[in-house]
Amino acid sequence: MKRYRRFTIMLLIAIMLLQSIMGIRVYAALETITKSDDNSVKSTNTVDYDSIGKQIEDYVEKNKDATAGMSVSVFDDKKVLYTGSFGYSDMANKVSVDSSTVMDWGSVTKILTWVSVMQLEEQGKIDLESDIRNYLPENFLHNLKFEKPVTMLNLMNNDAGFEENFMGMFTNDETQIISLEEYLRNHQPAQIYEPGTVCAGTNWSTALAGYIVQRVSDKDYAQYVKENIFEPLGMKNAAISPDLSDNQKVKENRKQLKTYRSNLKEIKPNVTYINISPAGGCVSTIGDLTTFARELLNENTKLFKNPSTYKKLFTPSSYYDVSGVGRNYHGMWASTKYALRVVGRDGNTAGCSSNLLIDLDNRVGIVIQTNVSQESKYIKGLPDLLFMQYESNNANEAYRVFNPKTYQTGLLKILRLSSITTFKSKEFYTKVNVGGVEKIEQKGSDYLIVDTKDFLMDYVTLGLYIAVMAFGIISVFVGFVKNKILKKGKKTLAGWATGALVLTYVPVIIMEVLLRYQPNVANLWSAATFQAISGAIFVVTLGMAVMFVLGLVKLLKTPKMSLLKSRVAYLVLVELSIVIAVFNSIYWNWCMFWLK
């Protein structure tokens, strides 16, 4: 781990303490790479798939302890070349994964949304370059900061400018599921960047696109997908409504699936419902996922009436700036890992991981599902067997960067410090300067090149709070020894000082609990919980302000001769500690319960 990242993590921990390149076998032997007419990377390969099944099985055997259960399918535009299921859908009871096992698609679901958008664009009901407010109820969006309108292309390209927001997305209680419209109205993230300037996609943006599909089609989103994608393709083992009620068989099968963390510890409860299904709510067998993915290789697909729509879908909608290489294909990302036009995306939920990748030039693809959250051994490793990897000429260059796909306002604003890291990659990327801001462009997100001064206020503010914590621990301990053990302590304002210092700890204790369990917060806690926590910190912050005023009054009223200079200095430090604690509470948005 790099020096700056270590420093950031040390700061966060301080609060808590109060808290395959040359060696990989590939089957796509790259002969040439040229620039195609649409300015995307294009390759001509000699591909041998005869032994792909055996190689996958050998890979699984070598890594069999890496995951609980996994299914994989390799296909071309004519047939399925290989499909296999491995491991267990229930490890404790040794229930094997098979063709009937259903798993979550996660963000692979987003491709369904973008296909739906393109279907409606084909019908003239959506203009990809029009202001999305044309398709929404009047005054629906109250989070727009910039005059430049947000278009459907901005949503597709992840550059609408909205910050990340997981609040309220998930619930473990089926009765707590809310409608897509209600979620989008009540959980609008701040717009941080002007549309088209910074790529930092959010689930909320895709959910908004799904809501537009719902509005212009005059059908519930799940019903639209069922009628226009699932049924035409014969996908009888797929469901996408938040409660999976659009397919009872899938719903019951999903309840039987056990899910696991990367250490293979079972996740309980095993089902998490997503309120914004257009961004990640699909569940299906590997067979139905394969059926959908194969259709994306079919130029005469049943998904569109006009072949030009298919061609448009797989024409870049955004490019890597200085190279002119296609970056995003109307919602699907061009992989930066492979020296081919490989597009698609991966996905993760609270219990599953998935991946869908297709090679547009060689008309071959792969889909993978596992019942392990944030799994990488198969999700990232198996495609390496199929596609030739790219190695950047800039592989030795490193940059200190900020990943803008994070919280930048609200209760979890402090997590932006953990988004500062060192970028160094063998994958394809471009370094550009836009409006005086240097950034790294890679799949799915930009990385803003930063210097220490860019986050100096963050570090200084948090550092001072850490100093307050240290001062509080020492002073309370020393006061306890003097007053309770040695019986020599001066009791003038002692109770006020102790109470004030203890009060400065409360926001930190609350945030320590929140950050400690943050991996589960995004998946399991509601926005109401976040607002309640922030409201509690607001009350504590108000209490600290009152303590400051009381201390100031008492200091002014206490006869000067009754206080030693050292005692005066101590009480001034306590007052200063209160000010720093209050400032941190405001600066990090901890006490601003009105921010959603």
UniProtKB/TrEMBL annotation:
The chain crosses the membrane at residues 462-481, 493-515, 535-556, 568-590. It holds the Pfam family Beta-lactamase. Keywords: Membrane, Transmembrane, Transmembrane helix. Residues 63-375 form the Beta-lactamase-related domain. The keyword Membrane applies. It comes from the Bacteria. Signal peptide: none annotated. The keyword Transmembrane helix applies. This is CubicO group peptidase, beta-lactamase class C family. SUPFAM superfamilies: beta-lactamase/transpeptidase-like (SSF56601).
